[in-house]
Amino acid sequence: MLIFFGPPGAGKGTQARAVSTELGIPHISTGDILRESARKETGLGLAAKARMDKGDLVSDDVMCRIVGERLSEPDCRNGAILDGFPRTLGQAHFLDQLLEQRESERALLLNLQLEQTQVIKRLAGRRVCSKCGEIYNVYLNPPRQDEICDKDGSQLFQRPDDNEEAIRQRLLAYERETVPLIDYYRSKNALHDINGNGEPEAITERLLNFLKRT
Ligand code: AMP
User: Would 88 be classed as within a structural domain?
Assistant: First the structure.
């Protein structure tokens, strides 16, 4: 089980998509699952949206249930790429228990490292395709045509939580709740740091090279 880890804006989603395509392992983004539920206006989706838009975390109970259900689906039999989960020690403990029940599967955390100034640039400039979910950045990785997806011509949108106030709150939640996971996985010898600077393709190369050697 690969866990793509790092602060909001480190490139977890972009890299998880690319590596998932390359290795043929499912990509599970808890943020995408919540956004999809919010779009469908389910009870869970609407409750989550209120928290997400402010930059607060959704409860461990809800998140663990979502991930437990998703990982029990047949396409995850041989592992998956987790993007945005676990984000708290409670979630990490839940994942440990879940993996204990699955034979010969361990978690490997890939920690995408990036400086805070870069993080803010990536979040503030992020645009996402409303149809296929492809991720762009108006400063660093712009689409060929403004606000239009290169892949399918659909309109790009800015996530409601990519505004200044929510970004500040998300970074706080990351520092408070998520950073402790670094020591937790390091102590289990299950953490690998990856330099998250540079072009998306170069970072994908770094990740794939590391995974080939593992
Ligand atoms: P992301 O797309 O990973 O940046 O997640 C967007 C938002 O969804 C986060 O700011 C949280 O509000 C919520 N979220 C996603 N994954 C989790 C999680 N594992 N635990 C708690 N909240 C989450």
Answer: yes
Angle formed at CA 46 by CA 82 and CA 159, multiple of 5 degrees: 60
> Taking a C-beta distance cutoff of 8 angstroms, is the pair 28, 85 a contact?
yes
Which H or E run includes 129? strand 126-129
- pLDDT, tens only, 54-108: 999 999 999 999 999 999 999 999 899 999 999 999 999 999 999 999 876 789 9
pLDDT above 70: percentage of residues in the chain: 100
pLDDT tens-digit map of 155-179: 999 999 999 999 999 999 999 999 9
Whether 159 is covered by a domain: the verdict is no
Q: At what angle do helices 43-54 and 30-39 cross, to 10 degrees?
A: 120
Spatial separation of the C-alpha atoms in residues 99 and 93, rounded to whole Å: 10
153 CA distance to ligand 1 middle (Å):
27
In a domain, 147, yes or no: no
pTM over 0.85? The answer is yes
Total domains present in the chain: 1
In this structure, the residue with its CA closest to atom 5 of ligand 1 is 31
Instruction: Provide the pLDDT for residue 104.
Output: 67
Domain extent for 77: 2-115+165-213
Residue whose Cα lies nearest atom 19 of ligand 1: it is 85
87 is catalytic: yes
Cα 172 to Cα 194: distance, rounded to the nearest angstrom: 22
In a domain, 71, yes or no: yes
Centroid of ligand 1 to alpha carbon of 205 (angstroms):
26
159 flagged as catalytic: yes
The CATH number that applies at residue 20 is 3.40.50.300
